[in-house]
Amino acid sequence: RKRRSVRIKTGVPADLVKPCSRCVMTTVDQSTGVRGGLESDPLKTLGEIRSGKTCGFSTETYKPEWSDEAFFGWNLCCNAKVGSKIRVGDVVTVTKRREFVKPK
Measured between alpha carbons, how far apart are the two ends of the chain, in Å? Predict the structure, then answer.
């Protein structure tokens, strides 16, 4: 797997650091505050279509313990200067691909 660096339309450079797994908080019913758990949507559906196993994140390249996590997105670290802005709808372009470094 390759790790990517991106540039956002406004010129802000950033690195995709690691895949982002979803937590159980995404299952909380907003009107009652009751937590649904791992077998509730959206985690149930994400687990079926975006698990670490289906995304290939459970290999030695990543972390075997990610096999059953539900992933949706990547953690991004911006290398922006003070005053830089990122806006909804900004185009993101891949600027560099490199080998992923396994987290410790």
Answer: 17
Backbone angles phi, psi at 53, to 5 degrees: -65, -45
Which pTM was predicted?
A: 0.57
Pairing of strands 13-21, 2-8: antiparallel
Q: One-letter amino acid identity for 48?
A: E
pLDDT of 1 above 70: no
User: Please, where are the H alpha helices in 42-101?
Assistant: 43-49, 52-55
Q: List phi, psi (to 5°) of 101.
A: -95, 120
Strand 71-78: give its sheet, edge to edge: 71-78, 13-21, 2-8, 92-99
Q: How far is residue 28 from each of residues 3, 8, 32, 37, 45, measured CA to CA in Å?
A: 32, 32, 8, 8, 15
Query: Average pLDDT, stretch 3-23?
Result: 77
Residue 36 tokens, joined:
């649904």
